[in-house]
Amino acid sequence: MKDLLIRKATVNDIGKINLIHQGEEGPWADLDMCAAWVTRRLERDFFILVAEFDGKPAGHGEWIVSDELIGKTFFLGQLQIAKAYQRLGIGKAMLKAGEEEALKRGCASVTTIPEPDTTSNIFYEKCGYTVSRRFITAETEVCGNAKPETMTVIDEIPESVIGAMRFLIGLSQSASRHIWEVISRRPEGNNRTVKCAAFPDGSYAAISWFGSNQTAYADAFGNVPADAALGHCFSLADAFGVKQICFEADQQHKELLDHYVIQDIQETHVEMIKKL
After folding, report:
1. Full-prediction pTM beyond 0.70?
2. What span, in angstroms and rounded, lies between the C-alpha atoms of 274 and 60?
3. Rounded to whole angstroms, what are the CA distances from 259 to 148, 204, 250?
4. Is 152 helix (H, G, I), strand (E, B) or coil?
């Protein structure tokens, strides 16, 4: 398309990225939070693209390299096309640009988590992506699930866990690098509270919440069974008075979690992959 320009973003594109997200949910729809996240992610070597159609802001995409069990992958955490420019092939062109960058960075694949309950899966399938994993989302009370454990409260989960340990709990983004950046390198002004702990079996857990600590989101890394990792999340939550946690896990681990009392559990997200 001769009227389409896709290029790397700079901090000067923050206003354009914010316009692309108007009418949508998420931090990019708020100008101040958009500025904070985009600035931080450019500092952290995220590959960020903007698309302009006829000189107008039309698309925004973000990728980051993540070492996973499947190998080195380029994780697509954000692809937004402004409503006025959808169904013009812009998303497909941006995916292609991201895949070309993935090869330059030595990645063997591109992975992403499409928004559930949308037609995004169909779009990615048409672009050559296939479902690689399915995830469950659960919400449950901490009381009755938490058991006293020896733990060491730490400032943050070490960056060295990425690629060295399995990312077991907290898979809404599926890429361990992406989640680590969210909880450990969040920008100034982000009001997320994060608490982390290390456990004697060598694994790590984190809980995070906004405002009141009645419900927290849980994440866990480790070379341990998924139920042990979830137990660590419960112990950490209980230590900080959190009453309820929300977590996600690979569907293949569901049976391991059955001995916990879980109020609400359902299949939600899928991970899609394109091998390069």
Report:
1. yes
2. 20
3. 17, 21, 16
4. strand
